[in-house]
């Protein structure tokens, strides 16, 4: 059985849109896309009178080198959100198929599924926010086409072990795609699940430059999967998903100086995460600081609402996660600069 047998048959046979840039490029006079012949005013718009390459080769090569994969295993889009949406559209038939999530978790998996009119099946995390493999596998039905794992988990910060991910991958073979969201993996000591793709064609991994690479505003995310899955996703991608300024920002971040800067900032975040965990635990009104492998801490308070308002009055915005299961008394606090973290502690104390 091919992993593509899990996809919607009409997507497998779809004639994809062929953009002007895909059909021809590299000429000296470009008159095939009805673009403006004049560049816009200002340096920020340099080159933006022309449509960008849908999947720029230099960026694909940089990301392939970063993640240790081949370029044909990569789709690059507008953040991980776009890849999630395209996966749901490619694999889930409206009104018939389903996805499985483990709440509390990132909300876009369910949002994309519901937009597609695919069912959302929940297999909640254990009380300590670890993956309940038995409950997850017990939730699988013939309708399930995608299973999303978020590691480190957002909003708790807990990682899923590589052994548990592989156990799920083995059980889902021939049944469903396993999508591992590693948006925060750079902050963790856990190994990536990317290596599993070579052993399980139904495993896909989501990565992003939004967190550790400081490019949230550029919206550059990657789907890493088998070449067959990537080719399927490219059939339904928008014609020009990557704006030129965003690609340029990504290339700068992935350059040797950019990588050195990211490594330095990662070291600061890890150190500050450890210190903030200790200092927050000592504050009055703090019930628990959850262990975290991400760039944030989920903190339980005796009165989370009052603390949230106190922080707002001090000009500090954190995430109120009390609507999430098992976190009804918690706030999620991103690790900022040492000076920002000190202000958080001062406002809470």
UniProtKB/TrEMBL annotation:
All residue ranges annotated as the Aminotransferase class I/classII large domain in the record: 43-348
Q: Which InterPro entries match?
A: Aminotrans_II_pyridoxalP_BS, Aminotransferase_I/II_large, HisP_aminotrans, PyrdxlP-dep_Trfase, PyrdxlP-dep_Trfase_major, PyrdxlP-dep_Trfase_small
**Cofactor(s), names only, from the UniProt record:** pyridoxal 5'-phosphate
Alphabetized, the UniProt keywords read:
Amino-acid biosynthesis, Aminotransferase, Histidine biosynthesis, Pyridoxal phosphate, Transferase
* EC nos: 2.6.1.9
Catalysis: reaction(s): L-histidinol phosphate + 2-oxoglutarate = 3-(imidazol-4-yl)-2-oxopropyl phosphate + L-glutamate
Tell me where in this chain the PTM N6-(pyridoxal phosphate)lysine is found: 211
Associated pathway: Amino-acid biosynthesis; L-histidine biosynthesis; L-histidine from 5-phospho-alpha-D-ribose 1-diphosphate: step 7/9
A GO term for molecular function: pyridoxal phosphate binding
Which family does the UniProt entry place this protein in? Answer: Belongs to the class-II pyridoxal-phosphate-dependent aminotransferase family. Histidinol-phosphate aminotransferase subfamily.
Entry protein name: Histidinol-phosphate aminotransferase
Q: Which organism is it from?
A: Dyella choica
């Amino acid at each position: 059985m091919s992993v593509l047998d899990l996809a919607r048959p009409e997507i497998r046979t779809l004639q994809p849109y062929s953009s002007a840039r895909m059909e021809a490029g590299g000429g000296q006079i470009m008159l095939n896309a009805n673009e403006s012949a004049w560049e816009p005013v200002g340096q920020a718009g340099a080159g933006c009178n022309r449509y960008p390459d849908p999947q720029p080769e230099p960026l694909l090569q940089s990301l392939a080198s970063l993640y240790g994969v081949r370029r044909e295993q990569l789709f690059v889009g507008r953040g991980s959100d776009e890849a999630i949406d395209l996966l749901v559209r490619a694999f889930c038939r409206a009104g018939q198929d389903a996805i499985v999530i483990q709440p509390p978790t990132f909300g876009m998996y369910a949002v994309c599924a519901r937009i597609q009119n695919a069912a959302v099946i929940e297999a909640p995390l254990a009380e300590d926010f670890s993956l309940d493999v038995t409950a997850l596998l017990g939730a699988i039905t013939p309708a399930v086409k995608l299973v999303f794992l978020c590691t480190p988990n957002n909003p708790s910060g807990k990682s899923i072990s590589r052994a548990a991910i592989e156990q799920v991958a083995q059980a889902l073979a021939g049944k469903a795609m396993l999508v591992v969201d590693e948006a925060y993996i750079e902050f963790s000591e856990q190994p990536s699940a990317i290596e599993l793709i070579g052993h399980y064609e139904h495993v896909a991994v989501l990565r992003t430059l939004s967190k550790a690479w400081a490019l949230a505003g550029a919206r550059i995310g990657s789907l890493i999967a088998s070449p067959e899955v990537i080719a399927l996703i490219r059939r339904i991608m928008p014609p020009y998903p990557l704006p030129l300024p965003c690609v340029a920002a990504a290339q700068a971040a992935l350059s040797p100086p950019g990588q050195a800067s990211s490594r330095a900032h990662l070291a600061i975040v890890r150190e500050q995460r450890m210190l903030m965990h200790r200092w927050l635990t000592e504050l009055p009104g703090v019930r628990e600081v959850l262990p975290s492998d991400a760039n944030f801490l989920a903190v339980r308070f005796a009165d989370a609402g009052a603390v949230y308002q106190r922080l707002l009055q001090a000009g500090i915005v954190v995430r109120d996660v009390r609507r999430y299961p098992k976190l009804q008394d918690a706030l999620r606090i991103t690790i900022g600069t040492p000076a920002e973290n000190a202000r958080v502690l001062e406002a809470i104390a």
